[in-house]
Backbone:
């Protein structure tokens, strides 16, 4: 989807390198579990109601509808040129994980496709199918794999043009969903667009985790007092960075810490109560590797 896949792949590879054989076992087990969940979302909810996902999966669903051949045939066939590009641009480990994920999805789609659909309501199918499919795809991405080769094209185009990865993916999916409108009807295309949105959000939840993290940088005139207060009331470790004012040339201490989404408001209240002129920047963190992200003193 629209997530920065390169960062996810790098983090997954680093964890595997540190974990040895057991990490590889966990990786491919996670790819299998993700494929089972994704197949359930597709076969029990989306496909029977003619609601599609974006990218190669969406193209494969439409090709399956037209030809009657198994979904896995098109997943493999459509991804072959993208896998060659991925090998050149991203690396061998990503290609292997993607091939394994696609094969798992192909097999499980055939197995789960034998069961009856859960609902005949396309709106409910878009919601619950999108949630389930998004969880499965998110697990596959966390393991360093993929089901959608169109994002590889987006990464390459991003390097050579002014268009971002997200913009290229949305442009490609605009044509795919337009094809769904011509094939299934425009109401199904709109349900598909809604399902695509739900899937994207669920992938973000799986990758980032339910306990979303934020990095905070604070420029304050009372850095040491504020550090003590944040340690006492939030229980979070704070790092002091030495800086200098660009205009005044005065030395300044910059506070840096990472908090959860639920702690952001409390942090802002603490900072502004102690220094109403403090400058605070808050931005989301995709993942944390190393260190100890836990409350100090607990």
Residues:
């Amino acid at each position: 989807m629209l997530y920065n896949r390169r960062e996810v792949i790098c983090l997954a590879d680093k964890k595997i390198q540190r974990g040895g054989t057991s990490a590889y076992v966990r990786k491919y087990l996670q790819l299998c579990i993700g494929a089972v969940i994704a197949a359930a979302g597709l076969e029990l909810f989306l496909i029977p109601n003619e609601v599609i996902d974006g990218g190669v999966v969406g193209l494969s669903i439409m090709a399956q509808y037209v030809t009657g051949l198994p979904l896995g045939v098109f997943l493999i066939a459509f991804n072959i040129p993208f896998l060659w590009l991925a090998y050149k641009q991203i690396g061998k480990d990503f290609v292997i994980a993607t091939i394994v994920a696609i094969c798992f999805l192909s097999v499980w789609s055939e197995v789960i496709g034998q069961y009856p659909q859960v609902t005949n309501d396309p709106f409910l199918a878009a919601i619950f199918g999108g949630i389930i499919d998004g969880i499965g795809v998110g697990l596959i991405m966390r393991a360093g794999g993929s089901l959608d080769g169109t994002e590889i094209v987006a990464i390459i185009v991003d390097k050579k043009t002014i268009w971002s990865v997200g913009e290229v993916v949305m442009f490609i999916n605009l044509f795919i969903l337009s094809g769904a409108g011509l094939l299934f009807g425009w109401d199904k295309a709109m349900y598909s667009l809604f399902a695509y949105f739900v899937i994207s959000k669920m992938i973000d939840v799986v990758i980032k985790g339910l306990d979303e993290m934020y990095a905070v940088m604070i420029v304050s005139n009372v850095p040491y007092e504020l550090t003590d207060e944040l340690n006492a009331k939030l229980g979070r470790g704070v790092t002091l960075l030495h800086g200098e004012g660009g205009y005044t040339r005065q030395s300044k201490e910059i506070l840096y810490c990472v908090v959860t989404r639920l702690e952001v408001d409390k942090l802002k209240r603490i900072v502004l109560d102690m220094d109403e002129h403090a400058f605070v920047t808050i931005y989301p963190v995709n993942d944390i590797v190393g260190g100890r992200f836990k409350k100090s003193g607990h």
Strands lie at 213-219, 239-244, 251-260, 279-285.
